[in-house]
Design a protein that fits this description.
The protein is of the alpha/beta class. Helices cover 49% and strands 12% of the residues.
């Protein structure tokens, strides 16, 4: 994607490019058509060691950090959006418990317990090849947006927690071995509080856990994001992915953790631009050569697409380079801006691509119509939907913390 990278990043992105070009892209249409999960792609990711991409090297992983993941995720998104989006759920579960957790303030006891617990989680990934999901959404979207406690609750019991609730749009449904469920601690003597959010790894084969509903959406069909229902599901203490109550601290002090859906759509935007150039140059299989590239209207459209792509890439790259704990106000607002820009521009670039390439490009034999459908989903995704980004950008530009009218 012609972005500044370290040698290590180029190596990791190169592996992702080979997997995507040679394996993921040829399969993408089938997963989309069937709305089936890309199990074969995950076999390839597992064989490449990429399930441990953001697992620290001392625990047997590849030790990639936030910026490394974002670049790899964007490359995967160029070839198969559904694989990139679901890979985000797994990879960020590891990232939240490693780089982000390491930056948080903890007592010595909390840190020791977390180190022991995450070592067990990482073993499941590195040694057993376990796959983790990260279900956020609930029927009441206010919780995933950070405006209310999660409706899914966890009550302390001997040796662990009893979890009750419902999640929807839960990607990797039926494919994940563990589901990183965000829930609110049920304190019988106190009202629910967002500060009491827990992050627990729920085994997919646990008693009381079931997957319900169907999955037949317009785009991102291979994510298989069905409903999760939890009825007194027991989760042992060792399955805490973050220490008790620290998710709230992370959400406030590490806001870039919520930008990790954007690489998928950055990759889709790049793929739509690449497709358009290849199509107009007559370089794609099955596309006849023509003189369309000589038409000024086509050239103007490609220019507009390139401008949007370069704007999105530049802003996105700056935002991920600023990621870290307690960013400045400007860096936080830039993260909202980058998220909004990538999600909206990806769809706009796909729209321009279809208009510019013409009628043949909407056929399912070519990937552009799938890119367009997948791209439309980005601005809807919690916790930073396009609307939430606009709301926060406006409010936080005009008000300092604590100010009211």
């Amino acid at each position: 994607m012609d972005l500044p990278m370290t040698d290590r990043q180029r190596e990791l992105v190169g592996i992702a490019r080979e997997l995507g070009r040679d394996k993921f892209a040829p399969r993408a249409a089938t997963y989309d058509d069937e709305a089936s999960f890309p199990f074969e792609n995950y076999d390839d990711l597992r064989a490449a060691g990429f399930l441990g991409l953001t697992v620290p090297s001392q625990h047997g992983g590849l030790g990639a950090d936030y910026a490394d993941y974002m670049l790899v995720g964007a490359e995967i998104g160029r070839w198969c959006g559904a694989t990139a989006l679901t890979f985000n759920m797994h990879t960020c579960t590891m990232l939240w418990s490693s780089q982000m957790a390491d930056d948080l303030a903890m007592t010595d006891d909390q840190r020791a317990r977390h180190e022991s617990r995450r070592a067990g989680i990482y073993r499941k990934v590195v040694e057993d090849g376990a796959l983790f999901a990260q279900p956020f959404s609930e029927p009441n979207s206010a919780a995933a947006a950070g405006k209310a406690p999660f409706g899914t609750t966890a009550r302390k019991t001997d040796g662990g927690w009893l979890v009750n609730g419902r999640k929807h749009f839960a990607s990797l449904s039926g494919a994940a071995d563990y589901y990183g469920v965000l829930c609110t601690e049920d304190r019988a003597d106190a009202p629910a509080n967002v500060k009491d959010t827990l992050y627990l790894a729920v085994p997919g084969n646990a008693d009381g856990f079931q997957i319900t509903g169907t999955w037949d959406p317009v785009g991102m069909r291979g994510t298989v994001s069905r409903n999760l229902e939890l009825d007194d599901v027991f989760v042992p203490d060792d399955h805490q992915l973050m220490p008790r109550g620290l998710y709230y601290q992370a959400a406030l002090s590490w806001p870039h953790m919520f930008m990790t859906l954007s690489p998928t759509y950055m990759g889709i935007a790049q793929a739509a631009f690449d497709f358009t150039v290849g199509y107009l140059r007559g370089e794609l299989p099955g596309v006849p050569k023509s003189k369309a590239r000589a038409v000024p209207a086509k050239q103007y459209a490609v220019a507009e697409m390139r401008i949007k792509l370069e704007q999105a890439k530049a802003l996105w790259h700056r935002a991920i380079s600023e990621a870290g704990i307690n960013p400045s106000k400007d860096a936080r607002l830039r993260a909202y801006t980058a998220q909004y820009t990538v999600m909206e521009y990806a769809n706009d670039i796909c729209r321009l691509a279809i208009r510019t390439c013409g009628g043949r490009s909407i056929m399912k034999a070519l990937p552009l119509e799938r890119l367009y459908r997948d791209s439309r989903c980005g601005s809807l995704m919690l916790p930073w939907t396009a609307e939430i980004c606009l709301e926060r950008l406006g409010r936080e530009s005009l008000y300092e913390p604590g100010e009211t009218d």
